[in-house]
Design goal:
The chain has one domain (3-186). The protein is mainly α and 199 residues long. The chain starts with a helix and ends in a 13-residue tail after the last helix. It is built from eight helices and no strands. Helices cover 78% and strands 0% of the residues.
């Protein structure tokens, strides 16, 4: 893929998701290559998060800031999350009459994550120039993530309504988060909340 191809694919992803999906599918990548692409973008995302944490440390430690200090664990968590996302996109979509499969869902997830890495890299650079503008850009990144996810899922499954897809994505994300939280609690994987010290 040349730089011109990449720019065209990026532009189409934002303007014509149906066409962008067909371009991705036309690459005819084997399943092993799709997994390698996902692993690569996860590695880039983890490195970027670690670099940002070192350049701009937060005054108050949070679970996310602690996770960025353990890049292997963070990369593993991201890889699991994205693979699960691709599985949910494929199977929940098909349950509602969609035609997409896991292989293409994996390709879509890897491509969206790659675009996010590129935009977040620009955000990190902007943090050193204008933190306020970089923070505003963070909101734009969230909007871009939602837009890409909804419209790429819509194109993947051949759905007609972006609003229904958005509601489906939102509902699936909420139910999955609740299920994983309950599972993690049952397995003792969640950190204990310290009891309040009595005066």
């Amino acid at each position: 893929m040349t730089l011109d191809d990449f720019l065209t694919l990026t532009r189409n992803s934002l303007r014509q998701p149906d066409l962008a999906l067909r371009q991705l599918q036309s690459l005819d990548l084997p399943m092993q290559t799709r997994w390698m692409a996902l692993v690569l973008v996860v590695a880039l995302s983890s490195l970027l998060a670690g670099m940002a944490a070192r350049m701009f440390p937060v005054p108050v430690e949070t679970g996310l800031s602690l996770l960025t200090r353990q890049p292997l664990i963070m990369a593993g968590a991201q890889l699991f999350g994205m693979a699960l996302t691709a599985w949910l996109i494929a199977n929940v979509g098909r349950a509602f009459g969609g035609r997409g499969d896991f292989a293409d869902a994996l390709l879509v997830v890897a491509w969206i994550e790659f675009l996010l890495v590129v935009v977040q890299l620009a955000q990190v650079v902007l943090m050193g120039v204008s933190p306020l503008f970089a923070s505003a850009m963070g909101m734009a990144i969230i909007f871009m993530l939602v837009w890409l996810t909804v419209n790429m899922v819509k194109a993947l499954h051949g759905f007609e309504s972006a609003i229904l897809v958005f509601l489906g994505v939102l509902g699936t994300a909420l139910l999955t988060t609740i299920f994983l939280s309950v599972l993690a609690g049952a397995l003792g994987l969640l950190p204990e909340i310290p009891a309040e010290v009595q005066p």
